């Protein structure tokens, strides 16, 4: 699993035409066959076998009808330099959220510089060419704001949240962070050490290792299969010049999207964006070339840890990109298999067999491809049984028609959950830039339910 979003990216590949055409032809049934197995025998504390419990069989009461929720009004413009700007009116709070998205992420890392995008993103809010990290923090604190930055597989983002009366100042600081980071040597070393420390901890985490092995199995030597935060060796080899070159190459207006959400008008948002970003010069973007992911094949991989007593299990295979026409249908299918709440995997593995505390299935849909993954953990001696049951459920979903009640429940859950994703200006900004990033129509946010 990766950062979707957040939490995993742009690839414009000369070799991708054939690959993309092949992916676009995948049907829902095809997406659920050719299963990969990734078993990580990396164990944490013991898991006692749960006993089957008899629950009441009465049918629960029907839920109340969902309230009519509308996405806030918005407007979209493109500046002459190519910067896409979207303004979303949200007057419930006297605040404004700004999110600048750069269409590049960890997939753009050179093979010998894995972790470069993450390190660069971690430094965007750690000082600029005119302000130190402390000065920038003090300036944001002075106006009662908050800032942040990060990187995913396909994208990098910079955030700023301020009160309405500090909108202009906040937008200027957002521009300063994104366009003029200092990449000061002391800050580089501090962030590098933090990443190395986090990586050392992660490598001892069975869940992290299982996810990393699964990604490598699915994507092979394609960048999607590489560790997003790099390795100790690759992080040690990243220089300040590497960071400056990465920033200069990808941080250009024609590779960016700016969302402004809050207690403002569209006219105010666009006028401020033009004033602050008009001098940001457009430049040509590089065309990367990647190794294509391998074709799906059945494999079982075991990562052995002799002193462990619990197994992390991953089962899945190559999936579809976010723009695939079957995205919504496959999303519903995966939710029925292992989505939030009651799902097939949880029902059979936890409720009926008592083999785990929980099981789920997820889909990562990236810029050009994606993956499907069932996730659980269990006692060491139950690993084989759990694997068989998961694979059986994959096949059952492919071969048997989903019942109307089960399908309606999944639809109702997705429709009912959508309002939770647009509760705050920050979440609205994230929804908007993600839709624009994938080249989807903004209108789908109005008609999702």
Explain what this protein looks like in three dimensions.
The protein is of the alpha+beta class. It has 2 domains: about 160 residues, Cytochrome Bc1 Complex, Chain A, domain 1; about 220 residues, Metalloenzyme, LuxS/M16 peptidase-like (Cytochrome Bc1 Complex, Chain A, domain 1, 2-Layer Sandwich). It is about 40% helix and about 15% strand. Strands 2-3-7-4-6-5 form a 6-stranded mixed β-sheet, sandwiched between helices. A 5-stranded mixed β-sheet has the order 8-1-9-11-10, with helices on both faces.
Topology:
Layout: H1 16-24, H2 28-31, E1 36-41, E2 74-78, E3 84-89, E4 95-102, H3 116-122, H4 133-142, E5 146-151, E6 156-163, H5 167-179, H6 185-203, H7 206-219, H8 232-236, H9 240-250, E7 256-262, H10 266-277, E8 300-304, E9 310-318, H11 327-338, H12 344-352, E10 359-365, E11 370-379, H13 383-399, H14 404-417, H15 425-437, H16 444-447
Parallel strand pairs: 1-8, 3-7
Antiparallel strand pairs: 1-9, 2-3, 4-6, 4-7, 5-6, 9-11, 10-11
Helix pairs in contact: 3-9, 5-10, 11-14, 12-13
Keywords:
alpha+beta, Cytochrome Bc1 Complex, Chain A, domain 1, 2 domains, five-stranded mixed sheet, 16 helices, disordered N terminus
Q: Summed up, what is this model?
A:
This protein is of the alpha+beta class and 449 residues long. It has helices spanning 16-24, 28-31, 116-122, 133-142, 167-179, 185-203, 206-219, 232-236, 240-250, 266-277, 327-338, 344-352, 383-399, 404-417, 425-437, 444-447, and strands at residues 36-41, 74-78, 84-89, 95-102, 146-151, 156-163, 256-262, 300-304, 310-318, 359-365, 370-379. Helix 12 (344-352) runs antiparallel to helix 13.
């Amino acid at each position: 699993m990766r950062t979707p979003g957040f939490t995993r990216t742009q690839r414009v590949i000369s070799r991708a035409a054939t690959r993309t055409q092949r992916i676009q032809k995948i049907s829902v049934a095809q997406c659920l066959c050719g299963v990969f197995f990734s078993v990580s025998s990396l164990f944490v504390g013991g898991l006692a076998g749960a006993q089957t419990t008899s629950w009441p069989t009465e049918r629960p009461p029907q839920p109340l009808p969902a309230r009519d929720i509308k996405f806030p009004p918005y407007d979209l413009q493109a500046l002459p330099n190519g910067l896409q700007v979207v303004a979303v009116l949200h007057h419930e709070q006297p605040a404004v959220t700004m999110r600048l998205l750069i269409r590049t992420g960890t997939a753009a890392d050179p093979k010998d510089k894995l972790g470069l995008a993450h390190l660069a993103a971690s430094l965007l809010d750690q000082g600029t060419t005119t302000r130190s990290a402390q000065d920038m923090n003090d300036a944001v604190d002075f106006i009662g704001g908050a800032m942040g930055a990060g990187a995913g597989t396909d994208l990098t983002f910079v955030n700023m949240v301020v009160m309405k009366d500090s909108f202009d100042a906040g937008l200027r600081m957002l521009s300063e962070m994104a366009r003029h980071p200092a990449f000061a040597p002391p800050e580089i070393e501090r962030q590098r050490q933090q990443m190395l420390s986090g990586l050392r901890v992660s490598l001892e985490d069975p869940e992290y290792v299982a996810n990393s092995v699964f990604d490598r199995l699915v994507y092979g030597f394609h960048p999607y299969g590489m560790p997003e935060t790099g390795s100790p060796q690759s992080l040690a080899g990243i220089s300040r010049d590497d960071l400056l070159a990465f920033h200069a190459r990808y941080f250009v207006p024609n590779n960016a999207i700016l969302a402004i959400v809050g207690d403002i008008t569209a006219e105010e948002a666009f006028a401020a964006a033009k004033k602050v970003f008009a001098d940001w010069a457009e430049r040509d973007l590089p065309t990367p070339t990647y190794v294509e992911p391998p074709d799906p094949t059945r494999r079982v991989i075991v990562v052995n840890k002799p002193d462990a007593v619990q197994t992390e299990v991953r089962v899945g295979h190559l999936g579809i990109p976010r723009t695939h026409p079957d995205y919504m249908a496959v999303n519903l299918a995966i939710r029925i298999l292992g989505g939030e709440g009651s799902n097939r995997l949880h029902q059979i593995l936890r409720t009926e067999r008592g083999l785990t505390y929980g099981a789920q299935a997820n889909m990562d849909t990236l810029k050009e491809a994606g993956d499907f993954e069932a996730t659980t953990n269990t006692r060491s001696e139950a690993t084989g049984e759990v694997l068989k049951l998961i694979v059986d459920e994959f096949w059952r979903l492919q071969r048997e028609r989903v019942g109307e009640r089960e399908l309606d429940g999944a639809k109702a859950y997705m429709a009912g959950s959508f309002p939770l994703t647009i509760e705050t200006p920050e979440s609205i900004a994230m929804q908007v830039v993600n839709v624009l990033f994938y080249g989807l129509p903004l209108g789908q946010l109005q008609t999702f339910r």
